[in-house]
Amino acid sequence: MLRAFSLVLSSVLLAITFTGCATAPRIVVPYTGDRVVDGNANLAVAPERDKALWDYRIAAAALRRGQADEAKAKLDDALARSAAALAPSDEAAKSRKLFGREETKPFAGEPYERIMGNYYRGLLYWRDGEPDNARALFRSGLFIDSDTENKTYAGDWVLLDYLDGLVSKKLGGDGSDALARARASALAQGRATPPDYDASANVLIFTEYGPGPKKYASGEYGELLKFIVDDSPVASARLSVDGREIPLPPYDDISWQATTRGGRVMDHILGNKAVFKQRSETIGDVALVGALGTAAYGRSKDSANVALGLAAIGVLSKITSAATQTQADVRSWDNLPRYLSFGAVRLPPGDYPATLTFYNPAGRVLTGLTQSFTIHVPAPEPTAAASGVQDIVLIRSELRD
Questions:
Q1: What is the pLDDT of residues 29-39, one digit of tens each?
Q2: Looking at residue 354, what is its pLDDT?
Q3: Those residues with Cβ within 8 angstroms of residue 373's Cβ, 6 or more apart along the chain or in another chain
Q4: Is residue 28 part of a domain?
Q5: What is the CATH number of the domain that holds 183?
Q6: Do the domain assignments include residue 249?
Q7: What's the whole-model pTM score?
Q8: SS3 letters for the chain?
């Protein structure tokens, strides 16, 4: 009988050893140091489930280099893939099963990541003279940030509301409700109050600085998604142009958004999976201990059957526990900024030397980060866009990809 039990126990060890051990071969991409080039090389060999993630990373790097067409193409693809990943489908159902690892599902991103995709794409629409499309993207971001199912909280990104209202103001609407929401969110988060709208301001500067959040898995089974938030060496910025100083305080903190948004459905699912894993492990341990005791001290044929039965239960429970994947998905859009800011100024046609200065938390200038450039304001075109809005949209980043 002990020999039979030993065979069963051996099967447990073999089953647990080989459960979940299969891994796909990893293709090594030569590293050049150019984030756009390296990103595209990774995108070319990435599995389908990771393509949106690489799209997002490449888009941010391209945007900072002024490669607008590249950024637009990658953002369009990433946003479409993210939407498809979240749409009801057989594949999405599979990703919710107990025996599927979270990183094997198509990458859609956490809410703050999808919102940043909409934000960046909105800026590029505005840059191309399509503020109405930009506003639609800002509103899409606010929708993502809102709890539309349980109505327990609303979106609280300061700039998304503020820019929504500014576009409305420029298109001849009111915008006051959006401004009020932006100021309420800023007050609740202890941030600077966005200024009144100036619909005549034709030079819009969007600035970002500081390192964004990074994901990691925590908990006994790696089932908890958590974030590393590094201190930012940059706390604010200022644009100097045409004898004027435009303050650029941090209106939005992406790390704050990543760590405070409530109601994440995936947290709940992973929590249930962790409980299931723990229970199946416990059942397996109890069954195997019972089988061992029965095998050692039982003398009857019935005892032998009971021991083998308990061992079988233990085997199944341990295999189930080993196969249950509880790890949180820590794939991350890893080149996002921490802070977002905005400023606007009215400039007549001409060329204007400008200086963008960054400051540390103590208010001292970070001289190594100062950017000098020229703002070119062309003469108004005789045939303006249907919207009547001809803004110069500048996108400047302290981050260097």
A1: 888 999 999 99
A2: 98
A3: 353, 354, 356
A4: no
A5: 1.25.40.10
A6: yes
A7: 0.77
A8: CHHHHHHHHHHHHHHHHHCCCCCCCCCCCCCCCCHHHHHHHHHHHCCHHHHHHHHHHHHHHHHHCCCHHHHHHHHHHHHHHHHHHHCCCHHHHHHCCCCCCHHHCCCCCCHHHHHHHHHHHHHHHHHCCCHHHHHHHHHHHHHHHCCCCCCCCCCCCHHHHHHHHHHHHHCCCCCHHHHHHHHHHHHHHCCCCCCCCCCCCCEEEEEEEEECCEEEEECCCCCEEEEECCCCCCCEEEEEECCEEEEECCCEEHHHHHHHCCCCHHHHHHHHHHHHHHHHHHHHHHHHHHHHHHHHHCCCHHHHHHHHHHHHHHHHHHHHHHHCCCCCCCCCCCCCEEEEEEEEECCCCEEEEEEEEEECCCCCECHHHCEEEEEEECCCCCCCCCCCCCCEEEEEECCCC
* Distance of alpha carbon 353 from alpha carbon 73, whole angstroms: 31
Task: Provide the domain count of the chain.
Answer: 2
Residue 298 has pLDDT above 80, yes or no: no
